[in-house]
Amino acid sequence: MQASGIHSAELIFLLLLVFVVSLAALAKKLKVPYPIILVIGGLLLTFIPHIPRVALDPDVVFLVVLPPLLFSSAYSTSWRDFEFNLVSIILLAFGLVAFTVFGAAIASRWILPGFDWRTGLVLGAVVSPTDAIAATSIAQRLCLPKRVTTILEGESLINDVSGLLALEFATGVLVTGYTPSLFEGTFKFLYLVFGSIAIGLVIARLIHVVLTKIDHAEIEITISLIAPYIAYLTAESAHASGVMATVACGLYLGHKSSLYFSTGARLTGSAVWNTLTFVLNGFVFILIGFQLPYVLSGIRTMSLGHLLVAGSLLSATLILLRLVWIYPSAFVAQAIRKNLLHQDVAMPPPKSIFIVGWTGMRGVVSLAAAISLPEVLSDGSPFPHRDEMIFLTFCVIFVTLVLQGLTLPPLIRRLGLSGQGGKNVEEAQARSAMVDAALAYLEQARDADKPEFRAVYDDLIRYERHRRNAFASTDSADTGFRREDYERFRELSQNVRALQRATILNLRNHNEIDDEVMRKLEHELDLIEARYAVAEHA
Question: What SS3 string covers 109-122?
């Protein structure tokens, strides 16, 4: 019996992985964000007879899936950009969540028969956090202004905290009937935010110290993989927010990564984390679609038609609430930046503000929160409208993710925002500064060294000047070559590398070298290929 169960679980896992890869490949071919295709694909797969049914376990989402996804997003976030846009992020992550909770609570009393303000608050808290994976993937692909992308990513990192906190309070009020005082609520909120940040930073600092004493890529990457779980579980054990602690830990370690990661860990770790986040996101979004049979099985009190209408109205209400909030909050953020923080930054154009308002997509956190609602109250009576809340949450996720996700690319192009990210001026300046520092050192060292080594210095100086011109810096060093010469150089280099790859493959096929030697030489060619790919991109 046990072996059969294990075999069945392995088969389901393999099938899900095949579905994820196939649907993601289809999404790439259709040029549609893969979360949208995965949700639709998962939904359609449920109609296939005898397809395995996989229930979404909230504990798996919150304890297994969520920590590494949050950590990865926080790790790759620029702390400088995050800090600079912190006012806008907070107004969305906390202000908009509160506005959504109360707005949805009021609207639900008109949309849904039998809902009172307590059940409305629970529903509002469940659907308040947004999932910006699809939105940010579109933003990066269409090269939206960096400020828009930073705000969307920052909001998605923090609003899980405020949404889950609101859900804890609303559920507590409904289950126990006890409404906490303003002092209790404020103290709980401050502890969850600042206590969680402190825990996350302490864990991050300890991990930082440990990693500085290790120079082994596999061990370093393994520690980075368990870091989000350490931060999350430590905070949860202290009755703080594991989400906020994980985000704080990821932001700190990402900002300090150059000080503790070895070269091997940096080269390999990004591939490991990119693959892990892709697989986890893939499972999460396809499982959202798989939940329809479970969601429908619990519906008893209302007809499916009435629930679909209610789900559509609730989804429209949430979209409208975000659009209503986004413009005043942009003006408030601008006033705070200008008058209190003295930041010299222009007001974003209305078109950019609208795009931020249109990206209020919901995801797995909302569905897991709905499924995790208790089944009974403290007096033993059933949790009111629990099944309807789960179905409505599923509707909101589907409508916002698919409708808004599919309309976002043409909307961005119609508003003329596509491609406004432009070239990264800071990257060009940094490359130029790197070359200038190298040239200054080499020229000074050449004069102080023995004359017999002058030719060595001249070759290195010429190489650095070639690098500056090859990367298309604004300043052009005199090397005797035109821009066309560098293009021809890259083309010839690509041909040479292709020939070298064919050579080592031929040697391996004729048993003159083994696979280990071939992979080592391939790795060296890959590093060279990556360097020239960066040059072409720049």
Answer: HHHCCCCCHHHHHH
- Residue in the structure block whose two tokens are 């493959």: 505
CA end-to-end span of the chain = 58
Are 384 and 174 contacting, i.e. CB atoms less than 8 angstroms apart? yes
Question: Roughly what angle, to the nearest 10 degrees, separates helices 515-537 and 483-509?
Answer: 160
Supply φ then ψ for residue 378, to 5 degrees.
-65, -25
CATH of domain 2-414: 1.20.1530.20
Q: Which helix (H) or strand (E) is 208 found in, with range?
A: helix 196-212
113: left (phi over 0), alpha (psi -120 to 50) or beta: beta
Work out the percent of the chain whose per-residue pLDDT is above 90. 27
The phi-psi region of residue 480 (left if phi > 0; otherwise alpha if psi is between -120 and 50; otherwise beta) is left
- The single-letter code of the amino acid at 116 is D
For residue 382, the cross-strand partners are 376
| Residue 537 neighbours by CB under 8 Å, 6+ apart | none
Instruction: Tell me the residue length of the chain.
Output: 538
What would you report as the CA-atom Rg of the chain, rounded to the nearest whole angstrom?
Answer: 27
Burial class (CB in 10 A: 0-12, 13-18, 19+), 14: exposed
Tokens of 416: 């003329």
pLDDT in tens, 346-395: 888 888 899 899 988 888 888 888 888 888 887 788 888 888 899 999 99
Domain ranges of the chain: 2-414, 425-537
Q: Is the C-alpha dihedral spanning 511, 516, 518, 521 positive or negative? A: negative
CB distance 348 to 147 below 8 Å: yes
d(CA 11, CA 228): 28
The DSSP secondary-structure symbol of 382 reads: B
CA distances from 216 to 211, 221, 269 (A): 9, 9, 12
Sign of the CA dihedral with 343 first, then 345, 346, and 351 last = negative
Alpha helices for 91-194 (secondary structure H) = 97-111, 117-126, 133-141, 146-176, 182-190
At 129, list the tokens. 């956090």
Angle, CA 400 vertex, CA 397 and CA 401 arms, to 5°? 75
Question: pTM to 2 decimals?
Answer: 0.84
| Secondary structure letter of residue 262 according to DSSP | -
Short-list 238, 206, 240, 243, CA closest to 223: 206
Contacts of 224 (CB under 8 A, 6+ apart): 253, 265, 269, 273
Q: What is the pLDDT of residues 233-286, one digit of tens each?
A: 999 999 888 989 999 999 999 988 888 888 788 888 888 998 999 899 888 888
Inter-CA distances, 231 with 61, 368, 384, 514, Å = 16, 21, 34, 44
What span, in angstroms and rounded, lies between the C-alpha atoms of 269 and 368? 29
What DSSP state is assigned to residue 453?
G
Question: Of 243, 240, 230, which Cα lies nearest the Cα of 203?
Answer: 230
